[in-house]
Write a structure and sequence with these properties.
This is 5,6-dimethylbenzimidazole synthase. It catalyses: FMNH2 + O2 = dialurate + 5,6-dimethylbenzimidazole + D-erythrose 4-phosphate + H(+). One of its GO terms (molecular function) is nucleotide binding. Keywords: Flavoprotein, FMN, NAD, NADP, Nucleotide-binding, Oxidoreductase. The structure is a single chain. The protein is of the alpha+beta class. It has a single domain, classed as 3-Layer(aba) Sandwich (NADH Oxidase). 36% of the residues lie in helices and 14% in strands. Helix 1 crosses helix 5 and helix 2 packs antiparallel against helix 5. The model has no long low-confidence stretch (mean pLDDT 96). Bound molecules: the ligand Cc1cc2c(cc1C)N(C[C@H](O)[C@H](O)[C@H](O)COP(=O)(O)O)c1[nH]c(=O)[nH]c(=O)c1N2. Ligand FNR binds next to strand 3.
Length: 229
């Protein structure tokens, strides 16, 4: 028995890392083609196999096809996006305004992944000290879906420039259910090879070597050649 016994084959590993590195947040490149039901089912199953605190599985998936719900969501986006633009000055404000930050109507499918904060009762194993672990778990479901979608050739865009109360009302969510991720999904004309915000000069990827510390915050870890990766 060697330590690499449980390792995936080279091709499988390449596939996994490819999904990770080529996953993109998509806003503009959506095609009209519908996502077939069996493909959507695979994506939802991938999300449902995420880890969760105490195996709480706090997520629900709201599949939004109706135009009227999307229009309600778009209207809260527009209001919040206007407010967001006001936080910047001068050129940065103009730059912000030029960015496309949602594909709510253009994408063939919108999906809201929610977190039911009451699921599993008042004492969920592992959640007593850090209550937000239910939210963290739901984020992992989003990421599973996002990576599986990339492998299926489907783009996903996360829209968070939304008023949560208005979103909850549009989706008729009960009080204890938190609307964690509003996602736009669809096949795409292309996946950009870098984040759109980077391509458009908004923000660069940080060097990994500056983010990895030894023992304590601020101590460099010299043994790893991270930037050569
Ligand atoms: C929690 C959260 C919330 C948002 C995002 C992401 C996440 C994780 N992102 C996408 C974000 O801008 C994007 O992930 C980064 O720019 C990196 O690009 P790639 O995802 O690697 O393409 C995002 N994008 C956008 O156009 N409008 C939005 O409201 C949001 N909101």
């Amino acid at each position: 028995m060697t330590s690499s016994n449980h390792r995936f084959s080279d091709a499988e590993r390449r596939g996994l890392y490819r999904a990770i590195h080529e996953r993109r947040d998509v806003r503009s490149q959506f095609l009209h083609d519908e996502i077939p039901p069996d493909v959507l089912a695979r994506l939802l199953k991938a999300a449902h196999h995420a880890p969760s605190v105490g195996f709480m599985q706090p997520w629900d998936f709201i599949v939004i096809e109706s135009r009227s719900v999307r229009e309600a969501v778009l209207s809260t986006f527009e209001e919040e996006n206007q407010k967001a633009a006001e936080r910047f000055e001068g050129e940065r404000k103009a730059h912000y305004r030029s960015l496309k930050l949602q594909g709510i109507l253009e994408s063939p499918l919108n999906l809201c992944i929610t977190c039911d904060r009451s699921r599993g009762g008042p004492h969920v194993l592992g959640r007593n000290s850090i209550v937000d672990t239910d939210l963290f778990s739901t984020c992992l479901a989003v990421q599973n879906l996002w990576l599986a979608a990339r492998a299926e050739g489907i783009g996903v865009g996360w829209v968070s420039i939304l008023d949560q109360e208005q979103l909850s009302a549009a989706l008729n969510l009960p009080e204890h259910v938190y609307s964690l991720a509003y996602l736009c999904l669809g096949y795409v004309s292309e996946f950009l090879d870098q984040p759109e915000l980077e391509a458009k000069g908004w923000r660069d990827r940080l060097p990994l070597s500056e983010l990895v510390h030894g023992d304590r915050w601020g101590q460099p870890l010299t043994a790893l050649k991270l930037d050569a990766l």
